[in-house]
Specification:
single chain; 427 residues; mainly beta; five-stranded antiparallel β-sheet; 3 helices; 5% helix
Length: 427
């Protein structure tokens, strides 16, 4: 009966009694304790006890509850400081601009500058990136602002002619290198993309990231639709191209033809087609390196446009003519017809500059009569569009000049960026 009572008693391991010990006769080496040891009662829920300070006597039995309480509590370290995703070190307002620049911008440079003039001298040098700059873009609605995308994960907003701090804002929303940037035609919104497999839309005035468009590939290039600013095209490392709708944040069209990494995309003048350039090459020819697509039907209209054994890191359409050009890794710029059958002009090309494997870009002037290109030798080359002859070569950097962009309002101003992380504005 005693065994049954003990077996079904209410005592648990938490209330275990101390096991009996054999009495030891006192001796000089084992003197009797002057006071018996009584463990302190367990703390209440609103009490805090330092159990490390109350170490049990050696050899004493410890219950499960006491063992749990004796486990050292993990200390919370000081929080790691987080770098702000938005830093405003200057103003993006045009109120601090010199009077002559402000007058040109507000009057659209009418009756002041000759469209035939080319930049001749360095006007502004901009420093702030710690690594190579991949792309730059002037704002068409706020033409005193220039945006730059860098390998240092940063997007910088430059108030180019400001008398105060020229690096107005720094955007750190990407957690990897930024490959491309484009200003929206709807005010102070900037779209960027990069190695973190996202495209990000930022309200520059408020410093807020408004939308994130995530993909399963590194996004290397983005382009707004020329007629609908709510649509933009993205191309990535897996050869996938997607047409996004900013209003819904979703993909409306997919363009896939098992291509290599997309190097560039460009809409035609009417916005009904676009040209893609991809890094796909065979042993002797570059198959499908340049493809013309139908935007709405999502099908290629021609995939044998360029069959030379080079890839093209940049594609640009002419602002007025039905032509487009492609920067070739063969150290020249090829010109194509932008209407069917999209043929390569075999009798004209723009050569003298060097590409040497860098993502060198080119761009047309406002009137379309000049074509400017960066070069791996650090120079900017200006070509006559009709004759394809070099009209000016201007040394800009010690390292490769990656991108060159004509100003959207002042025709004889051009911005450029370098592989060493610096930017320059010439006039």
């Amino acid at each position: 009966m005693d065994l049954l009572c003990h077996a079904y008693s209410n005592n648990s391991d938490d209330d275990e009694q101390e096991p009996k010990r054999h009495k030891v006769a006192p001796s000089p080496s084992n003197p009797p304790n002057p006071k018996p040891y009584f463990p302190d009662p367990p703390p209440r829920s609103n009490q805090s006890v330092d159990f490390q300070a109350q170490a049990p006597l050696p050899g004493r039995y410890i219950s499960k509850r006491q063992r749990a309480l004796l486990v050292p509590v993990a200390t919370v370290s000081d929080p790691v400081p987080v770098t702000s995703s938005y830093t405003a070190s200057g103003s993006i307002s045009d109120t601090g601009l010199p009077h002559d620049i402000l007058s040109l911008l507000r009057n659209k440079a009418k009756g002041h500058l000759n469209l035939k003039q080319l930049p001749e001298k360095l006007s502004v040098a901009l420093y702030g990136h710690t690594k190579a700059v991949n792309a730059i873009h002037w704002s068409s609605t706020h033409a005193h602002l220039l945006a730059s995308a860098g390998m240092d994960h940063m997007v910088c907003i430059w108030n180019v002619w400001s008398r105060d701090q020229k690096k107005a804002h720094v955007l750190n929303f990407h957690n990897a290198a930024v490959k491309d940037i484009k200003w929206s035609q709807q005010g102070l919104f900037l779209l960027s993309c990069g190695y973190d497999c996202t495209s990000r839309l930022v309200d520059v005035e408020k410093g807020l990231e408004t939308q994130v468009f995530s993909e399963d590939q590194v996004v290397g290039v983005i382009k707004f639709h020329p007629d609908n600013p709510n649509l933009f095209l993205s191309g990535g490392s897996k050869g996938l191209m997607r047409l996004w709708d900013i209003r819904t944040g979703k993909v409306t069209h997919n363009y896939n033809r098992s291509l290599g990494p997309i190097l560039d995309v460009e809409f035609t003048i009417n916005g009904k087609q676009f040209i893609s350039s991809s890094d796909v090459s065979g042993s002797n020819v570059s198959e499908h390196s340049i493809i013309v697509w139908d935007v709405s039907r999502q099908v290629p209209l021609s995939n044998q446009v360029y069959v030379e054994a080079y890839t093209c890191p940049c594609v640009r359409r002419h602002p007025f003519d039905s032509n487009f050009v492609a920067q070739s890794n063969g150290n020249y710029i090829a010109i194509f017809s932008a209407s069917p059958p999209f043929r390569l002009n075999k009798y004209k090309r723009y050569e003298s500059h060097e590409v040497s494997g860098f993502p060198i870009k080119c761009n047309f002037s406002l009137d379309g009569k000049k074509l400017a290109s960066g070069s791996s030798d650090g120079s900017i080359y200006f070509y006559d569009y009709q004759s394809s002859e070099v009209v000016r070569k201007m040394k800009a950097y010690n390292q490769a000049c990656i991108d060159v962009v004509f100003h959207p309002v002042i025709p004889n101003v051009i911005a450029s960026c370098s592989w060493d992380g610096s930017l320059s504005v010439f006039e």
